[in-house]
What we know:
The protein is mostly helical. The protein is built from 4 helices and no strands. The protein has a single domain (4-119), classed as 23S rRNA-intervening sequence (de novo design (two linked rop proteins)).
Amino acid sequence: MRDFKRLEVWQRARSFTRDVYRATAGFPSEEAFGLTAQLRRAAGSIGANIAEGAGRSSDVDYARFIRYAAGSANESEHHLILASDLGYLDGEQATRLGCDAAAIRSMLTRLSQRLSDTGN
């Protein structure tokens, strides 16, 4: 079993999730069960999938969860764009969070490729 807490990508995902929670605290109350919940769930899913994959016994399984985490990073980025379009996030905040999601996704892609290379 791997220690996911030592992974830089998990640490960045954890920080990203905290930032998303803080950013969405100011969203309109009518979005509590809509965009706010979806964005928070997608952001939290990144780190959760990294952690779950780290507990898997094979690199193939681990890589699958890393790909799920990358998908959640994509989903987060989509929700951030929508939140910006709707005026819930200012441009600077949306750009910073979007760049964070993209950087995490890039790290996950590299990790998935390394795991796939060793799993063959």
